UniProtKB/TrEMBL annotation:
It holds the Pfam family Mu-transpos_C. Residues 263-474 form the Integrase catalytic domain. GO terms for molecular function: DNA binding. PROSITE patterns: HTH_MU, INTEGRASE. InterPro entries: DNA-bd_dom_put_sf, Integrase_cat-core, Mu-type_HTH, RNaseH-like_sf, RNaseH_sf, Transposase-like_Mu_C, Transposase_Mu_C, WH-like_DNA-bd_sf. Residues 1-65 form the HTH Mu-type domain. It comes from the Bacteria. The lineage of its organism: Bacteria, Pseudomonadati, Thermodesulfobacteriota, Desulfovibrionia, Desulfovibrionales. GO terms for biological process: DNA integration. This is Putative transposase.
């Protein structure tokens, strides 16, 4: 409040004219002072004004807080103490803020010269009449609430305002916050018994769990009704409620996780690998039957780029090795390979000391935690961006998003075609590979949300694509470690240790020989092999020096020289012809045996040893014709392959059952009792090679 007031200020406060104020001043002989400065005039001291005039000035100031002059020096105002407001709830903080508005308003008017009692009385009066000005009117309802629901019915009073101002001066803002005592959560005595029924992996509904709980109720008093049980379950936290109903990965999805940063990585620092069964049926490349291939991907962690792809019939060491080969040859050698604990990565080909791929390529192989796919979230997400879109581009898609009725139609159509033509009406192996590689290229060229932003030509910002992130690293001076041309052929061949005996190494049922192995008799060597070529193996010392290329049955030679065998065959043929002619004479005396003019036909017990020209040889004697039927020489039998695993051996034996020996039949019988066969039984039955028991084995085979 000012010490002196001009006639214009008094006129505004009283709502009269300036002329009338001057007349009242002259009539009442109000004390005045000469106004200093330009213009001169009179100013009237506040203390010398009549009582009724002072009251009207105060009322004007209370109704117009903006008219209160600013106070520069406020040493007389109390110092607000530091208070812990971070422990308050949102409701307490809102009430405290609203009350603080009233306290600040009272302080400001006090600093302007009004008494605290005058200001408080004016606020109470304005609140009762509903004439409280903004912003006080906006905070009134929240400031006087007695509970969190805001329905207390309290009114603003002098005692309340005095308590707020006094509390603020004594303890700061925290004293303006209302007391809050949350309702204590009590755990009922029957809670554990009910949760034992409700928290099961089968996830019974609340109603079913309550019915079972009520049926077995043995406690004192009446059984809690459904609504009491529902209130109890709703009062539990999500973790407490879902414990037992969710286990393993599902429950881990509710817990906090650690996000791995990849900002400091360069390309090829870490490769992550994983495989999955493709969500679409295609034609088997061998027999045209419908099947779902296995896809293995290799992702560079730093750039999220897909650097390796492999497709196979099932996850195995060979399929994962092929994906790694593509990554190392096309992108570069990694420092670390991060994979799960599947059979394709936990085998001797990958981790054998000295001969495994990890030792030969010089990378560190590390595995994720078992049954914890969250640890490989980067790989899982990248895989969904590749193999799911690829499956959805084929009409034979069997993904969970596929319409069930449409999927059934495709299934029936493909099986009908299979019955009629022997091949399913499904995408071919080549079509599947083309679609997969097209999706991989699109993924590598598409902006990735985990990569840094760049400014494009039109000035907008967007994320880098994996290909751009790879190129950016190259531009910054990074260079990959490539595999040389001379190493590509043998570097990625799997290997095993074998002992040399008399120039031979026994490997997967075959004998491989080379003369250079003669000096290594009794020593252990490293045998590397190409899974697609069983005719030869590559022999290395344990120190890594190449010894030779040993060939299958390289030490075998004809039992006798070929010329000697041919001469013996000729003599045997002449003897057979003489016996045949003698037999014809006994049947029809005087009969003659006539041979064809083509000398290229040799007859031996009805078998053609040389080139076959006529369909039969005819012996004629006195009108009697003796037909000697000629049987076709059987084609050279297919060589038994080098079996990769049990499934490969089972499929080959079941499709070549006529060539099975007694040992093969015994192996089939034992294999049919294994867990692997039980897992694949339905697939084998569908392919028509289900095991039905031992077949008859000829004595010649035994």
């Amino acid at each position: 409040m000012k010490a002196t007031y001009a006639a214009a200020d008094i006129a505004q406060a009283m709502g009269i004219s300036k002329r009338r104020v001057n007349e009242m001043a002259n009539e009442g002989k109000w004390p005045f002072e000469k106004r200093q400065g330009r213009g001169g005039g009179r100013v009237y001291p506040y203390k010398g004004l009549p009582h009724d005039v002072r009251e009207k000035i105060q009322a004007h100031l209370l109704s117009n807080p903006s008219a209160v002059p600013a106070v520069v020096e406020r040493e007389f105002l109390p110092v607000v103490q530091d208070s812990r407001t971070d422990l308050l709830t949102n409701w307490q903080r809102e009430v405290m803020t609203s009350r603080m508005v009233f306290v600040r308003h009272i302080e400001r008017l006090e600093a302007g010269g009004l008494t605290r009692n005058t200001v408080i009385e004016s606020l109470v009066s304005a609140a009762k009449s509903g004439n409280l000005r903004e912003p006080l009117s906006l905070h009134l309802e929240r400031a006087v609430v007695g509970g969190e629901d805001g329905k207390s019915g309290r009114k603003l009073s002098k005692a309340t305002l005095y308590r707020w101002v006094g509390g603020y001066h004594a303890g700061g803002e925290i004293e303006l916050a209302p007391a809050y005592a949350p309702k204590p959560k009590t755990f009922p005595a029957w809670g554990h018994d009910f949760l034992a029924i409700y928290q099961r992996p089968s996830k019974p509904s609340l109603a079913d769990a309550h019915r079972e709980f009520a049926a077995g109720w043995t406690g004192t008093g009446p059984c809690p009704n459904y609504h009491a049980v529902r209130r109890f379950v709703c009062s539990l936290s999500t973790l407490a409620r879902e414990k037992g109903r969710k286990t393993g990965n599902a429950y881990l999805g509710l817990l906090p996780y650690v996000r791995r940063k990849t900002d400091e990585l360069w390309p090829c620092d870490v490769y992550t690998m994983d495989g999955t069964t493709f969500d679409a049926e295609i034609q088997h490349p061998d027999h045209g039957q419908p099947f779902k291939p296995e896809i293995t991907l290799v992702i560079d962690v730093a750039t999220r780029r897909c650097v390796g792809v492999s497709v196979s019939l099932a996850e195995s060491a060979m399929s994962t090795l092929d994906a790694l080969r593509m990554a190392c040859v096309g992108a570069g050698l990694p420092a670390m390979v991060y994979a799960d604990r599947g059979s394709g990565y936990t085998n001797a080909i990958w981790s054998e000391m000295g001969t495994g791929m990890a030792a030969r390529l010089g990378y560190e192989l590390t595995h994720s935690r078992a049954r914890c796919p969250q640890g490989k979230g980067l790989m899982e997400r990248a895989g969904k961006s590749i193999w799911v879109p690829a499956a959805k581009r084929l009409f034979s898609c069997s993904h969970a998003d596929m319409d069930r009725d449409a999927a059934k139609k495709v299934f029936k159509f493909s099986r009908d075609a299979l019955k009629k033509t022997g091949r399913a009406a499904l995408p071919t192996w080549q079509e599947f590979k083309e679609v997969l590689m097209a999706v991989v290229r699109e993924y590598n060229a598409r902006p990735h949300s985990a990569l840094p932003k760049i400014r494009i030509e039109d000035g907008r910002m967007r994320r880098m694509s994996p290909d751009q992130a790879w190129a950016d690293a190259v531009n910054k001076g990074w260079k990959p470690d490539h595999v040389t041309e001379s190493q590509r052929a043998e570097m990625f061949m799997p290997s095993e240790k074998r002992k040399v005996r008399r120039g031979l190494v026994q490997f997967y049922g075959g004998s491989y020989f080379h003369k250079d192995l003669e000096e290594l008799h009794g020593e252990i060597v490293d045998v590397r092999y190409d899974m697609w070529d069983v005719e030869k193996v590559y022999v290395y010392t344990l120190a890594g020096l190449r010894v030779c290329v040993a060939e299958l049955d390289g030490h075998a030679q004809p039992y006798f020289p070929k010329a000697r065998i041919d001469a013996a065959r000729d003599r045997r043929q002449q003897g057979q012809l003489m016996r045949l002619e003698a037999k014809a004479q006994r049947i029809a005396p005087g009969a003659m045996l006539t041979l064809p003019e083509d000398d290229g036909v040799l007859v031996e017990c009805g078998d053609i040893l040389g080139r076959q020209t006529p369909e039969a040889l005819t012996a004629q004697a006195d009108g009697v014709i003796i037909d000697v039927s000629v049987q076709e020489q059987p084609a050279a039998e297919e060589r038994r392959p080098l079996f990769q695993d049990g499934m490969h051996r089972y499929r080959w034996l079941m499709t070549h059952r006529e060539r099975c020996t007694a040992q093969d039949e015994e192996w089939l019988a034992n294999y049919a009792r294994t867990d692997e066969y039980a897992d694949m039984a339905e697939r084998y039955e569908f392919d028509g090679i289900g095991y039905k028991g031992q077949a008859h084995v000829h004595a010649a085979q035994m």
